[in-house]
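User: quick one, fold this
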Amino acid sequence: AEEFEALSAEERAEKLERMKREVELLKVKIGQSRKTLLDTTLAKRAESVPPLGRLIFKVRRNLKGHLAKVYAMRWSQDGRHIGPASQDGQQFVLDPLAGK
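Assistant:
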């Protein structure tokens, strides 16, 4: 910061322009890198996946506790508990095997 303040107004403007050009060059490089990584689309990739057929979901247990819609859920590392995220802002750790 002190180095920049020690520069004249003209030198600051030059340095700022160099930095802007460098940023634009980096944006181009990032775009090129993304294009090499994104060599296919989801639709093309999905063509090689066999169809699953009809899925039938069965309610095994109805866990209660949230007052609003649950929009996400994560299993614990041990696979025994779940942590749902709800629009009501409450957090629970549930044990689905015990129904609690």
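User: anything notable?
Assistant: The chain has a mean pLDDT of 85.
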